[in-house]
Amino acid sequence: MTKRLTDSQQKWFAIGVLLIVLVANIFATYSIFTEPFPGRNDFFSRWEGARSFWEDGVSPYSDEASMNIQLGIYGRPVIENEDPGLFVYPFYTVFVVAPTVFVDYALADAIWIVVLEVSLIASMILLLNLYDWKPPSVVLIGLLLWSIMDYFAGRGIFLGNPSHIVYFLEMLAIWSLYRHRDSLAGVALAVSTLKPQMGYIIIPFLLLWAYRSGRFRFVMSFFAMFAALMLASFVLQPDWFGDWVDQVRQYPEYTSAAYPDTGSPVWIVTQYYLGFGNIGEWLVNLVFIVPMLWAWYGVIVERRNERLLWALSLALVVTHLIAIRTATPHFVVFNLIFIFYLNRLSLRFGNWVAGLAALTLFIFSWAQFLITVQGRGTLEHPTLFLPLPFGLFILLWLTRTMWWRDAPRFDADSVSVATPIPNETNV
Question: Is residue 324 helix, strand or coil?
Fold first, then answer.
């Protein structure tokens, strides 16, 4: 008679299998992709900057580190109107990249790709749990595949963009808040600041809400972790902050020269296409900022916690509508919104309708890229930045009452998830 494994043994067996799969994935990725086809410049700039610090003992913002990055990407110093690939991230990024800098770049690249894939899959699992959605196995597998093969996810993997890790940290923070794991939420949100342009709106919103709601452990853990990151950075590189600010100031100038037709979605419409200038751009920005602030008021001042997830989703959309520059891999954060709607469709019409909707999103984004792709076959057309953020802002506004009614909400000590009645028509 076969002896049944205990729960503890099953847990360790599952962990062992998972580790074997991850290691196998890394070496398969190395053998098939990264060793014969080196790339992922978004990662290489961070990796080489961190390697220059840990191995060569120079600042990742130094001219020496910048030259190392350019030689690695171009094989020569950068020329006019080329992206110099500066490190440009906060110094504590070197802690995140550190485990990969002591191996060959091709292997480090493979490890990074797998980390991005795991971040995307883990984020999807967190979102499904957040919405209390337990789809059948076929739908679950489809959603997990969609999470890494959708255009915005796939492009981020192709470039090695750290956005997918930040996305995971933001989803982990949101999930942890809803599960009353406030310390974990604060730590995750603090580490997510390694890419500030993805959280510059939601971070103050969540901190203000948490302070107003008495969630002081979240606030304290955020500032404690952020202070630890900053302190460690200043201890190891005392002058890093000024050098980082200098590179951030250069960023809009050289990216505008290298990619003159891309920026924020609002910039693309108002300045690139319509030529309204800076004043026109900021007037249009206000069209999105004012409703977002109204949503903040309802949640923070009026304490309408049932609106929290809707206001947070709206803030994420506005984040990428009005940023000085954004990138399409950042759009993976919109899965927070997509999974809500897909869940509603599944509950109202069945899994096949939700699957068809996800497939439509998948085909649309890839088709738009393939039809409009420019230059060497990888440059995005500016229209690729427009449909998703503008469309989601409109959709969020039109369906706001559905979010207030059906999205996960806070009770005094727990989280409840509303489900629609069978004859519900508001989807």
Answer: coil
